[in-house]
Write the structure tokens for this entry.
Amino acid sequence: MTEPAPEHPQAPRPTTAPPRIPRPTPAAPHAPPPPPDGAPAPAPAPVLVAVAHGSRDPRAPRTVRALLDRVRDLRPGLDVRLAHIELNAPLLPDTLDGLRGAGAVLVPLLLGRGHHVKRDLPAATAAAPAVRTRIAEPLGPHPLLVEALHERLLDAGWTPADRGDPRTAVVLAAAGSRDPDSARDTRRTARLLAARLGVPVVPAYASAAAPTVPAALRALAARGRHRAFVASYFTAPGRFASACAAAVPHRAAAPLGDHPATARLVLHRYDRALCANAPADTVTLLASA
């Protein structure tokens, strides 16, 4: 037999709300979980070693240091160090000597695949076996460089009205190299910049390759393109950049320098080198994209 139902089935309502149990605060986005008790801390990220060419122009090392300050601002906590191939301290062997037992990614502050990228950097890393080293791609060619070149040209007087103007053209002034891959990289940047500007962009060189900047300007003038600008395809000021700018001093853009897009590209090359399918303890030279 079942028991009769109570006359008042509903329980009396509480006069106060039940206490709220605080919810745990979610972890910050992308924050790594803390290691379990007793577990070793994660290994530090490899050092980013930015490798500049070096110059006797005192503005060059100052410009490179300003660029690396931007890189540090974009990636707080990343160990970013400077090295030079020649002419300025610290030289690359000295920087690597201070990283014994650590990992490093060498990011060449160079704009194409030339002798320094293919020969000098691998030789320096081979001479420093105590450092687990990768070599990233050079900065160029890449659309981020085109962004920086475009803005430098705007600073030099380029206007949107110049797009499609039959009198206007641009000379992309580069250092020059006898390596055919370096020339191909410069030509690719010229094509990317031409698509951005809507006018012809002619590569020209300060040394080791033809045409020179004055010769390129003369050839453009012969085609009716008398309003020519020089885009300075150099990471920092120096003798070559100054010589190229002197050809058209009132329409020559400044070098790439510490432009924000250049700083983002340095980190992109670093990250790409880390993601490459290669052992971390070997020297890896990645082909330019």
Observations:
- The longest helix spans residues 180-197.
- The beta strands are 47-52, 80-84, 103-108, 132-135, 168-174, 201-205, 227-232.
- The CA atoms of residues 100 and 130 lie 5 Å apart.
